[in-house]
Write the structure tokens for this entry.
Amino acid sequence: MNKSDVLVIGGGVAGLSFAIWLADQRKDLQITVLTKANSAESNTSYAQGGVAAVWDENVDDFKKHIEDTLDAGDGICHEDIVKIVVEEGPKRVQEIIEWGARFDKNKAGNYDLGREGGHSENRILHFKDITGWEIQRTLIEKSKEYDNITFLEHYFAINIITQHHLGRLTTRLTPDIECYGAYALNKKTNSIETFVAKVTVLATGGAGQVYKSTTNPTIATGDGIAMMYRAKGRVANMEFMQFHPTSLYNPAGENPSFLVSEAVRGYGAILRTADGAEFMDRYDERKSLAPRDIVARAIDNEMKIRGDEFVYLDCTHLDPEGFENHFPNITKKCKSLGIDPMKDFIPVVPACHYTCGGINVDEYGRSSIKYLYAAGECTHTGLHGANRLASNSLLEGLVYGQRMALDILKVIDEIENPPHIPNWDAEGTTEPREMVLLTQSLKELKEIMSSYVGIVRTDVRLKRALDRLFLLHQETELLYNSTIISPQLCELRNLITISYLITRSAAMRKESRGLHYNTDYPNQFDYRQDTLL
């Protein structure tokens, strides 16, 4: 049994910034960080564009950033949370700069602030086109300064531990569910270990792998959200899955899809149909710089009308030296496929990108389960509403990392040590005989979600998806209860849970808003703010 004061599941921007903050304030607290792969592999690492923050106060201010976020969120952001994140954000960005983050500067020595869709001002701090990678690098290096942070790589969290594991029946209405840690699979030894802690933090990232085409890494299987739901915790707004308008079209197929950052459009690139005609002016006055939900739906519509497999992103009129300096990895990737962005249009398609809903938390990351906090993409804080404003995600992770630490510092000395926790019971299970059952179920799941619960939805499609998902759930639970656990089985099980939550939430919302577009309710207004499950 592994014991610590605080258990952090996930090592991206939210989990690591939290661990650093807490370790710095209380060097006597032992903090264990579990990562599913190695410490550098996280959703954070794949963030290209940058981190949004009010930086140049001569032209920008909090009011503008708040209004841009609320506008993108299409009426259901929690305004108090938006205000907190926007106003505290610059301080957190300044901290990560002091920790070593190297954001790009212009020739005058000032930060080279970019602009992305939905933003009224240039406020995106970035490092080339791999800002997430730079932030991840900074946090890993900073965390090494603290002896009270222990990293354990290649651990797959299976379930959070509650009274349920002590033999007590819990339901979603049970008012005092408590978290005591988690069971995790050591992927190197294939043994399931027990991790006990006074406080547990879920920072497990998103769930983009429910779709065939996603910019998310293969580890983005919604593990934290699924564990929370199984533990009878509250989950909210899962219908709002953001599709990034511009992933690189690759006919050979690629997982994850390569992201062509929104910053490219912010730099001046123009969306065009296959015949070279500009089309975004028919959908929004902001054209190619409209918020992601509008642009993604516009591209999807143009592709369906014309029967095309992609649209184009035109960068040929932009400054070649400046473009390659800003976007070296995008340039390199395009050229590897025989596309020269300065001479050729870049073929792009929408791909699942960001989970706007998730574990329901308050302004300090507290979930509905006692002693269980959550932050980052696995959460619903109310910041994003029905559609995330570009580059607000890294900002949210930094702000909530610090806020969780501040709240836990106030209460951790008053929390009693967890009760005795039984070890994982694998009695009666056998080795799986046919891996094809898992791989085929995963293909079927992605097909269901992409066909029926994608950018455009209908009640009939959602009903069909729920029916198919129920059969997949039954088949997978039978495997789970009768065979020895593997990462592949756990991921499939979690993805089925996530798919159910997305589809069920979408069926409950009788309107079209932000990222949820149902053609059966194109103009009908639903007074529900959040969809709680």
Remarks:
- The chain has three domains: 2-239+356-414, 248-353, 436-518.
